[in-house]
Amino acid sequence: MGQASDTLSVSASSAQSLLVYLTQHGFDGAKVARKAGIKVNTLDNPDSRIPVQVFNRFWEEALSVTHDPALGLHVGEMTGTTEMGIVGHIFFNCETLKQALDQYAAFFSLVNTSMRVDFYTDDDFAYVSYVCEAPESYSRAAMDRLMAISLMRGRMYVHPQLKMHHVGFAHPEPEYASEYQRIFHCPVRFSQPHCTIVFRKHFLNYKLPKRNPYLHQVLTRHVEAILNRIRPRKAITSKVKQLIAGQLAKNNVDAEHIAAELHMSRHTLYRKLKLEDQSFQALIEEVRQEKAIQYLEEGKHSLSEIAFLLGFSELSAFSRAFKRWTGVPPAKWGTK
Predict the structure, then answer these.
(1) Contact by Cβ (8 Å): 89, 47
(2) 198 pairs with which residues across the strands?
(3) Which of 58, 109, 166, 182 is 20 to 30 A from 268 in CA distance terms?
(4) What does pTM read for this prediction?
């Protein structure tokens, strides 16, 4: 689960790209931003944060002014570095595409705290999935831009022949579906569980041609400092996850027992987890997913053994859960 909706935020660079696009195309971008509730001078500070609700309102105002339903895709086609945020600069200063995507997933909350990025592979493909942890914050136009700019910058800074196997969007197919085909040049699927980019696994080995190791180190250090300020404290969450992990194989994950281990009542445990925007059942799912991936990558256990260690009564139940978490069955999971 994510933060409360009124505390969710995006980086200023995400809004800056829309402001620049509007201005370049003859619209009063500053006026549109102010109407949405954005102080335009804050966008000049790359460390500034904008509430997600305000950011989405900026998109709605821009859609109304431009009368362009495919605005998100068209903004995403801007591939310059002027509006690229810190995470983008870290990405393109990594050594390989795989390292870049690992760090992208780790640092994505700096881009948008209402979503997370899941990066995983199977035998043939790599998957970059944008999971909206606050569904009420989903914006079709913002996701169009994010997916398009990911592809365009990948072609510019990774490899010009970078091709997608397919891409998926969480929203239904819109009236401008032909624009997706023009930009992505691959099958496009709508009404998917998450927005996902899928490409051949061999691209992960590509060396990023414009890498600057020193810049990468400096920016990474800076991002860690920012994340420490915006990450919610998870004191109880961390302790509960450790206790859940120790009880999974015993098939004895019980809130009463864990509350007793922490010297509190179940009611108090639930209340403290709620203050950290968590629930007990969600943490069980989270620990199971993390341990499942760990066991699969270690390669020491059979699928049946892993199902048992995670507290599943049947292998089929584990397989269904794993596919729900990652989009692929455990038998197809590849080493990251």
Answers:
(1) no
(2) 127, 166
(3) 109
(4) 0.65
